[in-house]
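#struct-queue
[09:14] JT: dropping the first one here, sequence first, then the structure tokens:
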Amino acid sequence: MAYSKDLLVLRDGQAQSGKVIKNEFKIKTAFGDVTVKKENIVHIHFARPDGTGYPLSDEIKTNTGDDIRGKLVQTQAISFVSAENNQSERVHRDNINTLLFLGSQDAPA
């Protein structure tokens, strides 16, 4: 069975549909650590490894409209099952620009 609810956008512009295996993400903010379940996330933008560009920090956008900024912790690589070939791979966070969780956009606002 091929997955296609998530979209992985790499820093080089390539995009791949499939499924992110991780079910929740922990982000360290100025106010403390926040854990967000994947089904509540619309997208995650990863800060550039060299600290330049936008966003300046990692950013989680929830399906209720919250923007949570900080540093993703315990997220050195993302395990991803490709919809194209049903193969699992681990992608280092420094190579990822954005994760889009398309299933989360179906949730009521």
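[09:21] JT: and here's the second one, same format:
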Amino acid sequence: MKKIEKESVEDNRRKLAIKSMYYNRYLLVRYVSALFFFTNLYWLISLSMSSSNMYILPLALMIIILFSVAEQVKIFSKHTNNPKLTKYCFMAIFFTNILLIISTCFSPIFTKLYPFLTNQVKSQFMVLTVLSLGLLLSTLILLRLYKIKQNTDKHFTRIKAYEEAIN
């Protein structure tokens, strides 16, 4: 290879490395999105097998998550610090979990939302635990998105250090 070709290949390698580093700032967001998607898919299947008409809730959440996933894919080709759809997705998950916690504790709708579970204190506690974990995860992701938007996350400082090192 000629010297010019080697420099071109090396330059492309550096650009791809930086692009990947910016994309990997959202790695936790992508994993948590997948977790929420498959949790809602399991809930949707369970509701449809129970012939419940509440299947619309997990279906709507899955559609919202798919919009977020599409935005995450787009971020690789065009980096942004402000993924609005992803933020709205996790806000929707956050508020849905709050509403589900309230309805589980203070409403007789438990049997309609979870017809595959018996309406006992153990089942309600298990559902409250899962919903609380969902609330915690969505809060964590919203905080991560805020830090990315403000460029105060650890990945950003590593990216800037790498950019300085290669230049």
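[09:30] RK: nice, looked through the second one.
[09:31] RK: The CA atoms of residues 80 and 148 lie 9 Å apart.
[09:31] JT: good to know. The helical segments are 3-23, 27-49, 56-77, 84-106, 110-113, 121-150, 154-166.
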